[in-house]
Amino acid sequence: MNMKKKLLIVLGAVVVLVVAVLLIVPALFDVNRYHDRIQAEMQKQLGRTVQLGNMSLSLLPPAFKVQNAVIGEDPKLNSGTPFAQTAELAIELKFFPLLHGDVQVSELRLVRPQLELIRGEDGAWNFSTIAAQSQQQPKQQPSGGSKPIQLGRFQIQDGSVAVTDRQHHKPRVQYNNIDVVLRNFAPGNPFDVTVSAHLPGGGKQLVKFEGHGGPIQDATLISTPFEGTLELQQVSLAAARQYMNAAQMNRADASISGSLKFKNSGGTASTNGTIRMENIVVQGKKVGYPVELDYNASDDLKRQLVTISDTKLKVGNAPFTVNGTVDNSSTPPRADLKLITQGAPIADLIALAQAFGAAISPGMQASGNLAADLTAKGALSAPAVAGVLHATQLKVSGVEANSLQINLNMAPPGADVIRTLNGKVSVNLTEGRLTGVDLSQRLGMIGKFKGVNTVSSGATHVTSLTGNFDIHDGVATTNDLKALTDAGTVAATGSASLADETLNMKATAVLSKESSQAMGGASIGGLMSTALTNKDGEIVVPVIVGGTISSPKVEPDVNAIASMKMHNLLPSFSNPGSFTQGLSKIGGAFGSSGSKPGAAAGNQQSGSTMQNAAGAIGGLFGGKKKQ
């Protein structure tokens, strides 16, 4: 047997012997004899009460394992719960210092721990006071005293983290399935951290944050330099809702991916990156297109003021730009934002609004492009909105328009957005069409004019339409809606419910002289000629508009016709609303109170005359005469 073989055999025997010793010695050595000393040393290192359960020792590598370990909370917070408790605590030691009786921790690992993170009313986090004494004097250690805590690696496996923010009076929120790795932690030194969570559900469902920061400057962490990246991989919105216990997302689901970069410098944290939502479902309805956010913002951590700069939001093919601020120091947070878009496809916006439960007719087909310049001020969840909407090449629900401009000034809505709408809206439509209704033919049929064409062309050309609406609790009311159509001019007053689309309006149409002649002009004869033909030979047709916005019903307004005849107040083509305006100056035209004493007989005669006239006109329109 040569020397080489002998050397290998000896070396092998030594290795086997060392391994045997390392495996046997822990069984012979009762580490629990040092239980109290280790517990006391940890209390000195952490500056918190520490309770350790049964302990065991392994030598490959040298490490303690502790069952049911508990680390106490900062006494100033008086939370009633420990800062951390874990089913298993593994403390890995440095080997060579241990040979000289010096206990130095290289790694601390918590398995299935429960951590309570609390921000106090002064803004300081409870974890920032751990090892506070050693952090204050890292370079001045008395002989035999405790040394500042230094960890090569701190790890949490499958942890549960609860966060309570007393400074902003936010309730406790718990997050589960958390993995954390903290590297190179020591007072006065920078450190690295990785936090990841796997959410329940199919796909990757991964939320991961990696960053580099420190040294820690103060207990609030506001001035601590830090930078890192948040990565989302196929995170289900439903899983995030369950994970974060966020009831406000109950109606929606989506798959979220993307990344955001964070950097804190001098108390100002900047954030930028892209988040994309796909396979969006709201209240069981598929939206059918993605939503992408290209985010750019900065957060003044001391003032808790977020400034959003040139952030891009893309809803399908509809691009929006958002700028402004969100003040998180108030409850609820308050927004002062500006939203601008050019060329946003209206079809995409209608689909999104329908998915979120807006009162829009099912199956509504819409097309066209939208430009918007809006401001949103007030509570972030329900701000007041004001600005201008401008639609071009609009086609929606029987209305077509080359141009439609809406100016709005809306108060903050409630939980039921449509039914709690309050504010003012003005409308200006040019060069449009009302498809599905031939106003000339409809008015002719109502008036039974001799020259009416009984075959409808199926549409009405609208040169212009203007009006102002006061909206109260989801009901829009107007007294100056005017339209110029190929049938004539129309003025309308009344209301429309945005929630159930109910219409309750009165309208007066005045046909042009040319259209009036085509309808029969003076040859219509009798009461119709006296009541519905003004001095310029223009035919006047008052109607009542009921039904719904999507399915209106038009009937003759016999009371208005009688009032016109009685008071000789006939509107003209150039001013179709003059009849209504004239009546507002004459008390009691529609039977209102306010009669003067001694006028009873005159009123009775006038009322009889109006009743007879209304009955005659009702018969003319095919209705029954009043008895």
Please describe what this structure looks like:
By secondary structure, the chain is an alpha+beta fold. Among the domains are: 25-133 and 148-187, no CATH class; 436-589 and 606-620, no CATH class. 20% of the residues lie in helices and 44% in strands. The protein is built from 12 helices and 28 strands. The chain has a 28-stranded mixed β-sheet that branches. The longest helix has 26 residues, at 3-28. Mean pLDDT is 76; it is low at 133-144, 525-531 and 580-627.
Q: Summary?
A:
With 627 residues, the chain is α+β, with helices and mostly antiparallel strands. The protein has helices at 3-28, 35-46, 95-99, 132-136, 237-244, 346-355, 439-447, 513-519, 526-532, 558-567, 578-584, 600-620; strands at 50-51, 55-59, 62-71, 84-93, 105-111, 114-119, 151-165, 170-185, 191-198, 206-213, 226-236, 252-265, 268-282, 285-286, 291-300, 305-315, 318-327, 334-345, 366-379, 384-396, 399-410, 423-435, 459-472, 475-485, 489-497, 503-510, 540-547, 552-556.
Biggest pleated-sheet summary: 28 strands, mixed
Detail the poorly predicted runs.
Answer: 133-144, 525-531, 580-627
Please give the number of β-strands: 28
Q: Number of helical runs? A: 12
Strand content: 35-45%
What is the terminal-to-terminal distance? 137 Å
Q: If you average the pLDDT, what whole number results?
A: 76
> Portion of residues in helices?
10-25%
Q: Which structural class should the secondary elements be placed in?
A: alpha+beta
Radius of gyration: 39 Å
Shape call: elongated
Give me some keywords for this one.
627 residues; alpha+beta; 28-stranded mixed sheet; 12 helices; 20% helix; elongated; disordered C terminus
